[in-house]
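Data availability (excerpt). The following record was deposited with the supplementary files.
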Amino acid sequence: MKVIVPVKRVLDYNVKPRVKADGTGVDLANVKMSMNPFDEIAVEEAIRLKDKGVTEIVAVSIGEAKSQETLRTALAMGADRAILVVSEEKLEPLAVAKILAKICAEEQPSLVICGKQAIDDDNNQTGQMLAGLLGWGQGTFASKVELTAETATVTREVDGGAETDSFKLPAVVTTDLRLNEPRYASLPNIMKAKSKPMAQKTPADYGVDVAPRIKTLKVVEPGKRSAGVKVADVDELVMKLSAMGIKK
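Predicted structure:
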């Protein structure tokens, strides 16, 4: 049973984003980059599923050439090989999903596990689009994944609590934070990752049109929060809330 895990190189979650002076995007010059946290969870889950019938884990990244660092991290965690699709242009979720669909057609995996969203754009679209393009079943926001030879059972987060779905393989699963705690790569595994195979491709190799369909007009920082107001007692608090249109 083969599992594909897409991973993305993003601004590290510990770094405070800065908007470019011209408002065209986020400034990524000389800042720490790392694997998208939700994708780390996906890699960890794929590794844990190796004890339940998974025989090969293929990590895939679609982005600039430096994304090979992210793939090496996935390989150090436990992935068996990697595919890097190099594109210096920022790709939209649909283009990424189309490339992944072509990779799935070549690799014939039983399961694709990806993060539910990337923390840079927060689109939460690629997994769902990929399942739609492939015509596969999908389980989104997974907090628990169980596999058999023919089916996947996913417990997923919903507004009212948790929902359990079962569907036939092959399928697409997107991961939520509660699924697991990703492991740290050990030094021996980091050294071994350097010798694991990594194929390099381009979108043209898969015949995918990656022309953008969305135009970003402007990127601005969120407004600064105004200072709070102290009140002397409950009566004054109620009066101020009433003036703001907030009722008891």
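Summary of structural features: The chain has one domain: 2-243.
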